[in-house]
Amino acid sequence: MAETTGEATAGPMNGAESLVRTLVAGGVEVCFTNPGTSEMHFVAALDRVEGMRCVLCLFEGGATGAADGYARMADKPASTLLHLGPGLANGLANLHNARRARTPLVNIVGEHATYHREYDAPLTSDIETLARPMSAWVRTGMSAAEIGRDGADAIAAARTAPGRIATLILPANTAWEAGEGVAPVPPIPERERAGDEAVAAAARALASGEPVLLHLGDQAVRGPGRVIADRIAAKTGAKLLAMTSNSRIDRGAGTVPIERLPYPIDEAIAALKGFRHIVLIGATQPVGFFAYPGKPSLLAPEGCETLTLATPAQDQLDALERLAEAVNAPPARAPETGPLAEIPTSGPLDQDTIGAVIGALIPEGAVICDESLTTGRNFFALTKASAPHTWLQLTGGSIGLGIPMSTGAAVASPGRKVINLQADGSGLYTVQALWTQARERLDVVTIVWSNRAYAILRGELANVGARNPGPKAIGMLSLDDPAMDWVSLARGFGVDGRRVETLPAFTDALRHGVATPGPFLIEVVL
């Protein structure tokens, strides 16, 4: 049997085994799967190859969301294994989120045998067309002899900065026919450097004496990037602000604090008011999440200059260092973070008291997966002085990411407690991922905000100018007739849980969840 190395080798293996060995050799060591008949040879190959962990998901959106969460924490791609076009279609919503997070992901989709497609069997579809909107790279394998090389090319595409989705379509016969061993994976290419003129233009804006915003994303919002940006701000008086939606922010006590551009359009416009220059560093220009009657799409104030120091695909740390040198920025300063508020022991169970409890009880090294939407708007500010932790959030706006993302993050982060802050309506999209957490015995606390409504959309009724909604409109946004029983749902999937309706009960349940290994769910009735 051929050894698993980065060198091309020959051996008595089929195409599926050649592909799996190539994936492992290329650092792709976890496969989130929901397979069908066409993928059975890939499934069988998993038992013949050491080094590939297989995680079964009950729904393809759970597999793609988990692969996203894994890659954000592991800083390398996982793979998926989906069944034909319909399986890919089920996973597209969370591939959209992964694309917006710039997540590296090798998305493997089974296909009918090459000679079978012409007969238009019931599951035949145009998989390449389905894949293209969410994928930077798409290829259909044409032979078992080449499928290992196709896999190597997919890994290289996924790892291209700033991170991309590469979809490899695997016809059944390219999996069962004879393969040609492990294909070498090209090295990760270095990020392109930002141009000298981009650095000079940002330096001129900072020297103008006018208000400047450093708008951060991607590498720039991670710990080392924020430290350099903070040095620039200390010298020039510029303000730091992260994008509304970020793939990952490492934060908490001892890190440079940063706020995000608010989601509500009126708050976002107010946050940007007065700036004369916005410098983008790994970020995109601030735009409204949606169009609203009488409100702008571009959120920067009129007359504000928007400059790009470094795109998400470029080396933002290098660009920040060069800008810091250009403005003669001082050495890094000690972050100033205030003490955490004491845990409230009485009062209502609301956003502020919940945020205070979470902020106090986040354990050091925790991973927070945030799909709170309306309930969690204040949590980010209330947790800035918590123990050091990592914050992942919904990036593309396609709801149903939280439970799968926390699942993948836990697979990538053994020894770190994962806490999922989960809106109830969006959690129902991919609730099956709780079963995967139980099966894999993952250390995840899921906190469900059970307001029994699509609460965010109630606010959007007013934002879009839909006045005086009647019972039909309100009924489309309500989840209380009948009300879901999240604790029963969780237990049905093998996850223990509690329902809480008071602040002391919530505090006690979260203490228990943080201290107890394995998956646990808390339903917070609001």
UniProtKB/TrEMBL annotation:
Domain Thiamine pyrophosphate enzyme TPP-binding: 383-524
Domain Thiamine pyrophosphate enzyme N-terminal TPP-binding: 13-118
Catalytic activity, EC: 2.2.1.6
Keywords carried by this UniProt record: Thiamine pyrophosphate, Transferase
Keyword tRNA processing: no
Top-rank lineage group of the source organism: Bacteria
Keyword Transferase included in the entry's annotation: yes
Record-level Gene Ontology MF annotations: acetolactate synthase activity
One Pfam family per UniProt: TPP_enzyme_C
Homology family: Belongs to the TPP enzyme family.
UniProt name for this protein: Acetolactate synthase-1/2/3 large subunit
Lineage of producing organism: Bacteria, Pseudomonadati, Pseudomonadota, Alphaproteobacteria, Hyphomicrobiales
